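User: For my dataset I need records formatted as: sequence, then structure tokens, nothing else. Please produce one.
Assistant:
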Amino acid sequence: MKLPNLKKRPANARALHNGAYAAVLTAAVLAAVILLNLVVQALPTKFTEFDISTGGMFTLSDTTKDLLRGLPQEVQVYYLAQTGDEDGNVTRLLDRYADESGRFRWEQRDPVLYPTFAQKYTDASTGSLVVTSGEKYKVVDYNSLYEMDWESYYTTGSMDYSFKAENAVTTAVAEVIRTNTYRLCQLTGHGETALSSDYTETLQNSGIEVSELSLVTAGGVPEDTAAVLINAPQTDLTDSEADTLRQYLQNGGSLLAATDLTVDTPRLDALLAEAGLTRQEGLLVETDAGHYAYGYSGTYLLPEVTASAVTAGVNSGMYVFAPIAQGVLYDEDNTEWEYTGLLSTSASAYAMAGYADAVQPEKADTDPEGAFDVAVAAENTGTGAKVVWAGCANLLSASMNQAVAGGNAQFLGSVANWFTGEENAAVIEGRSMSAESLTVPSGSIVGLGVLFTILLPVALVVLGIVVCVIRRRK
């Protein structure tokens, strides 16, 4: 009878032990990988996906982040899109919103699977977003998420789009969580310029409805008026109208006036003078090329936006366009009112007194020079009345606003929010979807060609030979 080979048992046991150890180690590594994958999936999108788009399409602005972090209640968004036909830009942006606040949630609703869901919301259709909070909702149409640059199309033939979804969604969120609404009355009867849709939509985003007010027919300022706007009047107030507005301010009202330097309005000026504000005579002319627009004459002002509570809603980097303006002065010794300069020229600007007869801007020896305020805010410390005077009749025109991508409307919205005491909800710029081409300067083409086609390959071959020789010697 052949005895078993006892010497092989230790070797077999060792092999079995090593195999078991390898199996356990493999299982542990696999479990760690699965766990790591689950942890990564649970992380917010902003930590796992990076926005490398040219215009930062998915990077939320500070305005949106502040709004989301301060949400007082739950906000639920429904994205109405068929499965497989979702817009990846929209879903990625909504993920970024959800990352910023635990009170913001969104989910997709397929109209095929939920055919009656959209019927609960007026104007809701496939592709749109329904932003809800409690009983309130706002439908964001898909077409409002993108905007085509028609000027570029007509001039160059190229179809350039910008992604405006952040502005649309943030505006909708602010609307559904808002509890207060306000009324701004724009005065009529003096040739005033009515606000265009650019401005009224911005005000609506802040919960402010715009209506017309004729003091002749109304007989007074309605009690629910949060502010009165006098925009570029071509004639002066009557004594009765001035008295009505004076009484309104004495009761703590708010007034915004944008005036024309070529139109005399002594009664309106006297009303504003009671708040310590007066005109700086002369046409403001800039000599600093960084403070006027498009290489035109220095009268096309791009004033500095002074950081303050009044201008808190103006996005940094945006311009406010104020062509053909005059300065506004304020009485620093008036202790009843507190003053804040809102828009200012550079220190090298001057006020040209003889502008009416001038062929081109030219400073006279007697023209004052320095930094001038184009717009000033005043607040009465006793009554709480608020007054803003802008010495520019073009400040609230549609063409001026479009020339600076909505900066003027954003300025108006910020002032209106200061009047009402609400948080500023700034207009958020659209993000360009046109990728900038990477171009190589013609002078560098030859050098780069030699580097990548000759020098680098030769260097790699030489390095390989050196490594082989070293290894053989060992």
